[in-house]
């Protein structure tokens, strides 16, 4: 069993480069299919180019559309962040929300606008959820 340390290092380097290459290839293909500005024919042509001549195709794609690739990724990330903040804004009750709501209900009951039964149901609803 003769496998020198340098060969171990070179094997690890080649494995790293292959993984890096596949990550780059799938990023390009993913960007290609997510891009709404390209027509179907252009997507098909780029896909054939990337599959038939992978190294040249990927490098040409990065040269021709690499800047836009980064911009599209940033826009997509911003859109997801905006959706997240929009969705989470409605689910988080405002600070002191339940105590303010209970105070408002007590005030309505004190003025006679709510009966004792309506007050109990509203109070239970506020406290449970």
Search tags:
about 130 residues, mainly alpha, 2 domains, 5 helices, elongated, CLS_N, SHOCT, transmembrane, PLD nuclease N-terminal domain-containing protein, cell membrane
Largest sheet: none
* Helix share, percent: over 70%
Number of helices: 5
The CA-CA distance between the termini, in Å, is: 68 Å
The tally of beta strands, per DSSP, is 0
Shape: elongated
Question: Brief description of this entry?
Answer:
By secondary structure, the chain is an all-alpha fold. It has 5 helices and no strands.
Protein architecture, described:
- The chain is mainly α and 129 residues long.
- The chain folds into 2 domains: 5-92, no CATH class; 96-129.
- Helices cover 84% and strands 0% of the residues.
- Helix 1 (5-34) crosses helix 3.
- The chain is elongated.
- It starts with a helix and ends with a helix.
């Amino acid at each position: 069993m003769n496998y020198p340390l340098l060969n171990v290092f070179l094997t690890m380097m080649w494995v790293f480069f292959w993984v890096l290459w596949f990550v780059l290839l799938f990023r390009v293909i993913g960007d290609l299919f997510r891009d709404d500005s390209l027509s179907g024919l252009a997507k098909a042509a780029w896909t054939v180019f990337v599959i038939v001549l992978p190294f040249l195709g990927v490098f040409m794609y990065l040269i021709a559309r690499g800047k836009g690739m980064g911009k599209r990724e940033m826009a997509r990330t911003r859109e997801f962040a905006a959706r997240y903040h929009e969705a989470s804004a409605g689910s988080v009750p405002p600070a002191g929300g339940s105590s303010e709501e209970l105070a408002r209900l007590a005030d309505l009951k004190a003025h006679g606008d709510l009966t004792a039964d309506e007050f109990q149901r509203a109070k239970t609803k506020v406290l449970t959820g």
